[in-house]
Amino acid sequence: xxxxxxxxxxxxxxxxxxxxxxASFYPESEEFSLTVGGKKIDTINFANNYDYAHLAMDxxxxxxxxxxAKTQKxxxxxxxxPRGQNFGAKISGNELVFSASxxxxxxxxxxxxxxxxxxxxxxxxxxxxxxxxxxxxxxDYKADKSGKAITKGIQDAADAAAKKPGSIVYVPAGSxxxxxLLLKSFTSLYLAPGAALRFTGNRNDYKTLxxxxxxxxxxxxxxxxxxxxxxxxxxxxxxxxxxxxxRSQKYMAxxxxxxxxxxxxxxxxxxxxxxxxxxxxxQAKDVEFTNLKILNRHDVTQDDGIDVVESQRVTxxxxxxxxxxxxxxxxxxxxxxxxxxxxxxxPQVVKDIxxxxxxxxxxxxxxxxxxxxxxxxxxxxxxxxxxYNAGVGMGVHHLYGGxxxxxxxxxxxxxxxxxxxxxxxxxxxALHIKDxxxxxxxxxxxxxxxxxxxxxxxxxxxxxxxxxxxxYKVSGVTFSNVYMGDxxxxxxxxxxxxxxxxxxxxxxKFANTx
Length: 514
Ligand SMILES: *[C@@H]1O[C@H](CO)[C@@H](O)[C@H](O)[C@H]1NC(C)=O
Ligand SMILES: *[C@@H]1O[C@H](CO)[C@@H](O)[C@H](O)[C@H]1NC(C)=O
Fold this sequence. Notes:
Elements: H1 2-13, E1 17-19, E2 32-36, E3 39-41, E4 50-57, E5 63-69, E6 78-81, E7 90-92, E8 95-100, E9 105-110, E10 115-122, E11 135-137, E12 146-151, H2 153-162, E13 167-171, E14 174-178, E15 181-183, E16 187-191, E17 195-198, E18 210-211, E19 217-224, E20 232-235, E21 238-240, H3 243-248, E22 251-257, E23 262-267, E24 270-272, E25 285-295, E26 306-309, E27 312-323, E28 328-332, E29 350-362, E30 365-373, E31 377-389, E32 392-400, E33 405-415, E34 429-433, E35 445-455, E36 463-466, E37 474-484, E38 499-501, E39 505-510
The protein binds 2-acetamido-2-deoxy-beta-D-glucopyranose (NAG) (2 copies).
GO molecular function: polygalacturonase activity
GO cellular component, one term: extracellular region
Pfam families: Glyco_hydro_28
């Protein structure tokens, strides 16, 4: 009784904060330390240009974050993103102090040292037990959690679990080097906080499935069995692609591949260091990603965050994707050609896709359809997005294929910054068609809605609404409530939005409601 009331008192007094421990693979950040609600949070030294920390908290009363720039005497400049919200930030010596009342993802730059990414998730619900009926703990299958030798134990536990539909493969905290993992119907993979699965990067440890023209051979690291149903991956552990090393070995991998599956769910596991498109639902139906964090490097190419490929009814909600290549995109491609060789089914359309509450940082596009439109792509909605920094904010790049991209919506997106250029394109919005000249066909873009946008910068080059010919146009583009720079009034002309190139386009309308 006494204990109960003591804890009840605590939980009303302060929002709970949970630190997710750093796996033994990872060093601590040299530049930053972090406390949240007075609790010390583990930091992780990661890429050349950013570090990160992962924790959870309740929504409710404000919680104080103190981010210390350890190598700095004082703070002379900072960026705290998302910029559209007020976190009451203050400088105290070499600490940035701010508060948040709900779990959020933050990207913070202090004195241009290097970015710090703070990943705050909701407190975990439905945490499974580590043993018991229907729980297949990988340690009971001799998985090596020291991270020293490649382990078969996780696949062995998954195979045993698959014989008893509804079972959970439980991976406790620890460091695991793992070969390919195949998940079968009605099996869940749970990664506990502090559990990290790492790709070795050595091709002999994997089953090569494809060759990417101009690049390397590759594999699908963790995949569902084709024609499976009800597979789930969840928890607060880490799936680590070891991408930079893998590329140095002239190899690559997609990390999480729900392929030819239905009713797939993914919640909360952090994905990092991809060596190719990191997360790729392929020919999948009824797929839900929540709390999806993808931290790829900016010095590894073609490492897209999540690419929804030939799939239907896919939702990505509450997410951050950092990559050199596109953060969030939808694609359809030619069958039986390099990376599509292992696809289980005939080519499929992309339809009914929602990206909601997604934050991006990329050298390429943040939110994109393309480049392949080899099958139709329709009803794709990007909403409540934040572009921390990108080559291109959002767009449709119809470069390959003779089919149609239609009914594409960009709604409530804050373009905070743009930099560089992605293949010569450097703008907040690019809708463009090209024929890449390899007899892959060319096709139209129809019915694009661009609304409730803040483009704080427009980009260093002209914006594009550019078709290919009289036959293949960009048609039916509606703008409403697009705010350029810090303007308080929505744009009423194409020129104001820097949409300079509009050849072979038609039906461009303004429908401002503000
Ligand atoms: C267009 O897509 C939206 C989702 O973004 C959907 O609600 C709507 O029904 C689609 N419109 C048509 C005509 O299919
Ligand atoms: C856009 O138009 C300008 C002016 O005509 C031209 O110089 C530029 O090449 C065009 N950009 C693209 C990507 O077509």
